[in-house]
Specification:
The protein is 73% helix and 3% strand. The chain has eleven helices and two strands, in the order ααααββααααααα. The protein has a two-stranded antiparallel ribbon with strand order 1-2. Helix 1 crosses helix 5 and helix 6 crosses helix 8. The longest helix has 26 residues. It is elongated.
Length: 261
């Protein structure tokens, strides 16, 4: 075996795996399965030890042997005469499942990191709005078809809260975001909802730190636009609802671009 294949695994990969598989036995099982899946040829305890040593896991061949016997009992591996072990079809499925868990965690962290603003708050806010527009224009089409009565009541409640904040001349920072989140929730697409919640959280942070945004001066107009969007949603008019949502975001983005200049 060419243990140089272990060089394809970075320290970040190991850290991500450690975060998912907190038990040492689970982590070692994952790494052993990953090695065997990569090689697709019989492999013994000594060769597996060499690979694990390169990753900084100093375990004996006896420990590895016991782990392999446990994986045999689970149906993940099988003995090939005196040449070593290979993965069964169930073992292949197991390592792919474990890899998916690691990948999902890593992607989740990247999404969270990408949602965080940097020093240029307004520039970041523009990028954030562009991302939200892409998602929410599709989400409202889904909501027009899938929103239930309770969803529409929640959206209307958020709209009334937004109107109250504007009428009382309270701080407009973050106002209206609940209206948008409720619409995405009504789309019944949990991935869209999760991403928009992350973006909305960061938008609130930016707006509270940037108190002179021109968009605040348009708060009353935005409430009126929200009312139009809600009316289109109530009418189950997906085309009109999407058009109004797109116009709403374009207006906010154009105003932020003026702030940036």
């Amino acid at each position: 075996m060419d243990v140089g294949m272990t060089e394809m695994i970075t320290q970040d990969d190991i850290n991500n795996a450690k975060a998912v598989f907190s038990l040492q036995s689970e982590l070692m099982e994952y790494l052993l399965l990953k090695i065997m899946h990569s090689l697709q040829e019989p492999i013994g305890s000594l060769t597996l030890k060499i690979a694990l040593d390169k990753w900084g896991f100093n375990v004996g061949t006896a420990t590895i042997g016991r782990s392999l016997k446990i994986m045999d009992s689970y149906g993940y591996t099988y003995q090939v005469a005196n040449k070593g072990r290979m993965l069964t079809d169930m073992g292949v499925q197991k390592v792919q499942h474990m890899q998916n868990l690691v990948t999902e965690r890593n992607l989740g962290l990247k999404i969270v990191e990408a949602s965080k603003a940097r020093k240029d708050n307004i520039s970041d806010l523009i990028d954030l709005m562009v991302a939200r527009k892409t998602i929410e224009c599709q989400a409202i089409r889904l909501a027009a078809a899938k929103a239930e009565e309770k969803d529409l009541k929640e959206i209307n409640w958020a709209l009334m809260q937004h109107r109250m904040i504007v009428d009382r001349k309270l701080s407009p920072a973050g106002a209206g975001l609940d209206f948008h989140i409720m619409i995405v929730r009504a789309s019944k697409n949990r991935f869209m909802e999760a991403v928009v919640k992350l973006l909305a959280y960061e938008e609130r942070n930016i707006e509270f730190k940037t108190l002179k945004l021109s968009t605040f001066a348009h708060a009353a107009a935005y409430v009126d636009k929200h009312r139009e969007i809600f009316d289109a949603l109530m009418a189950r008019d997906a085309d009109n609802a999407e058009r109004l949502m797109s116009e709403h975001f374009d207006n906010m983005i154009d105003t932020l671009i003026l702030d940036l200049k």
